[in-house]
# Entry
Amino acid sequence: MKKSGKSILRIVLVLVLIVVVGAAVAGTYTYAQLDKVKKADISKSDTDLGINEDNEVKKEDKIVNIALFGVDSGGENREVAHTDTIMILTIDEVHKKLKLSSIMRDSYVEIDGHGSHKINSASVYGGPELAIKTINKNYNLDIRDYVTVDFFGLENIINALGGVEVDVKEKEIKEINKYIKQVADYKKEKYTPIKESGMQQLNGKQAVAYARIRKVGNSDFERTERQKTVFTALIEKIKNAGVTKYPQIVSALAPNVETSLSNMDMITIGTDLFTSGINQIDWCRFPVDGYFEGKYINKAACLVFDVEATKDQINKYIYDDIKPVSKQPESK
# Structure
């Protein structure tokens, strides 16, 4: 990786990947196993990736940003090229944290050469390279690499870990079972529906279905919270699994991953994680409440947000470890 810029449903698995890569450094399994991960080449030039050279001064060698894209290859009428989930993984050795910044997929942004669209359209127009460029230009960041994970990977990894504990609400059961059936029918597999609410152990298919719920509660906002819930439960399982489980985790993960990172990049990141003392995970969603409004543009539901404020908030969060505060609506 260059010094200037170094997968919830689907993509949070990349955290698993990075943890597992760290185990590779410890000799838990062979370097060759990383070859099972699909590699892709993208440009490394600042211009092609939309990195503002004027900002290079403030970028820290010890703060590494990687774009995480989640795709859904299952179900009917799915646009595989759209990124259903967009996150930025920040490995912050300065503040000793892993940070996840969720970018709402309906965020209305400028896509180079294509005008203004929802941010999840960028990958349709130009693959991961244009998706990275779109994030960098609209949020003034320095991302140079990406990891894409298919949601089937999340199912497999959760099963490999014996499931995750989730507190399911009564109002969520119908939608969970709808998605469980959809995935099972697509894969021609049997499934176990959720029968009651409350804290319970979900298998991979059930947990993925939970993380996909959108029509219960506050639309994509609550879905993002559910993804965070699954992610947090998954990380706890990984932390408690022990190194003997790592080969099984990698075996479940690798076939569902595509990345611009080389094997050496991944091992370097893993080594840094294991030796830097990072033991805290933080998460934030952008745009922040109070800095956007929902609008229909060309018959599509979009989030029109305060670009300058959001750019400042995400930069302060990633580089200065200052978490943004929601803005309360003005009283009438």
Summary: Confidence is low (pLDDT under 50) at residues 1-30, 75-81. The CA atoms of residues 22 and 274 lie 6 Å apart.
